[in-house]
Design a protein that fits this description.
Strand content: under 5%
Number of helices: 3
Number of domains: 1
Radius of gyration: 36 Å
Amino acid sequence: MALRTVRDVVNRYEAVDKIPISRQLIHRYRASHAAYSADLASLEQGAENKEREKQADDAAIKDKQKKKAEVKEKQKQAEQLISEASDRLAKAASSNSKSELVAAQALLQSGNTKLKEGGGRIGCCSTAKERKCD
């Protein structure tokens, strides 16, 4: 559209050097340049904002993945405690040792507690964006 207008004006005056330069023409040129500069600056600002948001999202995803790895490690430790407690319980039952029974019971309680702590935190992802950590 703008090119067509320029072409029509040049054709009307027959040459570029014959176009009268007025205050209004200079003012329109400056206003159009200012508007273009403002639009360009807003586009650059929007791109920077998107990049910052992407970096924040990536950091949040990494944090969720780290927490998930920690939870899995705690669950693994809890399973090991429960497994060891089961072995001690079997040995204590065969040897009728009360001290082994007490130790096995303590290990079972500790393992169950760790398992519950880990299981409660694994369901932390509530939105679709946070579920990317899976």
